[in-house]
Design brief:
The chain has helices at 3-19, 36-40, 62-78, 81-112, 114-117, 122-143; strands at 23-25, 28-29. It has 151 residues and is mainly α. β1 and β2 form a beta hairpin. The radius of gyration is 17 Å and the shape is elongated.
Length: 151
């Protein structure tokens, strides 16, 4: 891969890694959101029901996001196109499923209270931007393979 693709993957790995531990929506971190809630949906009308109580880290939303960050970092370090694609697709899938599930469960609440709910979402911004950059870098690496040297 080209060096700017490696740099882009490295920066996206850092963005996804940091975004994993920052608030995603309404001051709730990805480490507080149960992974099973993405499959089953969220119950309740208030965003406080989004967070689980005493949730171990391996059962939280942070697990697949941290795995995506590690895959992106490995892709940047070892010039691995398939690993870059795996990290980008995993990160994008988790972010999209989270956004869809939150919209399904709390869409009206977010529209009514957007001035307070959407103020503390630095983690979500980093997750989305990191996955978009990773997808773009993966597309560039497929489109323009590294030049072969003649010896």
């Amino acid at each position: 891969m080209r060096s700017f693709v490696d740099l882009g993957l490295f920066l996206s790995a850092i963005a996804v890694g940091i975004g994993t531990f920052l608030p995603v929506l309404g001051g709730i971190r990805a480490t507080e959101i149960p992974l099973a809630s993405l499959r089953d949906g969220f119950d309740g009308d208030d965003l406080s029901t989004l967070a689980g109580t005493d949730l171990p880290i391996h059962l939280s939303l942070a697990t697949p996001l941290a795995a995506a960050a590690v895959l992106l970092l490995l892709a940047a370090l070892f010039d691995s196109i398939p690993t870059g694609w795996a990290g980008a697709i995993l990160g994008a899938a988790v972010v999209v499923v989270l956004a869809v599930r939150v919209q399904q469960s709390f869409g009206d609440y977010i529209r009514d209270n957007h001035s307070t709910v959407l103020t503390n979402q630095n983690g979500f911004v980093l997750l989305v931007s990191g996955t978009v950059v990773a997808l773009l870098c993966s597309l560039i690496s497929v489109r323009r393979p590294a030049a072969q040297s003649e010896a």
